[in-house]
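Appendix B. Chain record.
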Amino acid sequence: MQNISKEILKNNKSQNMITDITHLNKAWQIFSSIILQNAKKYIPCISKTSQSFNVHTPITSKIYKALTILNKTLRIIRNSTPQQYIIEINKNISRINELTETDINQTNISDLTNDLSLTIQNLEAYRKSLYTAR
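Structure tokens predicted for this chain:
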């Protein structure tokens, strides 16, 4: 505390009497910089990083992520030629299995060409079970 008051007095002596707004602004700038320098020097601080805030529990978040992936997979199967996207479909199914710890069978080209409606029904059954589990 002694250092702060000495610095303020030293800088105040160098300034003449405050007669107008410019001198007031200069004096205030010197005063605030002395306060900030000493605050940084003498007041300990802790740096804090931002933390993510999850509205849902981790399990619920995984189920929502799995539902998103499952809906995307169903959209691919219904709206495009699924044979072209077999690798992406199987990758999505693997990701759903990891997130939800279920055992959805990987699809192959014969499932998509011969039994497309059965494949869609199976995936919709999984989707319904995930909706009720959330």
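Further analysis of this model is presented in Appendix C.
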